[in-house]
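User: Just a sanity check before I run the rest of the batch. Below are the structure tokens for the first item. I only need the designed sequence back.
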């Protein structure tokens, strides 16, 4: 299996240059705090002020799910998070972490809708996974060449659909990829869907968009 940790990319952001109001679990103390470095969306944004609106939109859902700000984490953990915001269905965040020889999976869901208000946190679970599962995920990450992907490769955005946001953080770099309603035959969809499959979330086939 191939790990992405050793790779470098001009798209990846060095994690050491950021500081923000967070608690010891890297969860913001202010609901207006952005979860993503604003310049990441600014550099790839297709529309004026789209960067700020996007960061605010994604951040309010992650804050409602009491998720950490990944790019601010200076620990030795390697972690990745899939944030799934469907227009009319519950927002979901799935985080996978490696800390030494320990591997953990976390998943959360709110009772709102990804395109509107996040609502209240109704599911917050975690479990230990084995090294083989971690390596399977790393294989998917290698297949999409995560660290070298552009943050936003979408030429057109739709009004309804879903955002599939995948973040990654190692000890030296941070990167995020944001795709709108990816093709179900794409490797990116397969990679994120792999994480969904590790949880006990019951998602109807028609609701997986």
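Assistant: Here's the designed sequence for the first item:
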């Amino acid at each position: 299996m191939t790990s992405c940790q050793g790779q470098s990319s001009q798209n990846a952001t060095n994690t050491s240059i950021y500081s923000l109001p967070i608690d010891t679990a890297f969860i913001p103390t202010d609901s207006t705090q952005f979860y993503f470095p604003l310049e990441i969306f600014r550099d790839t944004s297709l529309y004026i002020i789209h960067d700020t609106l996007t960061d605010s939109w994604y951040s309010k859902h992650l804050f409602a799910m009491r998720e950490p700000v990944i790019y601010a984490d200076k620990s030795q953990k390697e972690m990745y998070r899939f944030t799934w915001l469907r227009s009319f269905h519950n927002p979901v965040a799935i985080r996978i972490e490696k800390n030494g020889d320990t591997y953990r999976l976390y998943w959360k869901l709110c009772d709102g809708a990804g395109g509107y208000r996040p609502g209240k946190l109704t599911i917050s679970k975690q479990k230990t996974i084995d090294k083989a599962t971690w390596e399977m995920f790393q294989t998917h990450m290698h297949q999409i060449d995560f660290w070298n992907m552009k943050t936003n490769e979408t030429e057109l955005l739709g009004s309804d659909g879903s955002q599939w946001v995948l973040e990654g953080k190692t000890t030296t770099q941070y990167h995020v990829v944001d795709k709108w309603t990816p093709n179900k035959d794409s490797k990116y969809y397969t990679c994120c869907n792999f994480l969904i499959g590790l949880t006990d979330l019951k998602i109807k086939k028609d609701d997986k968009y």
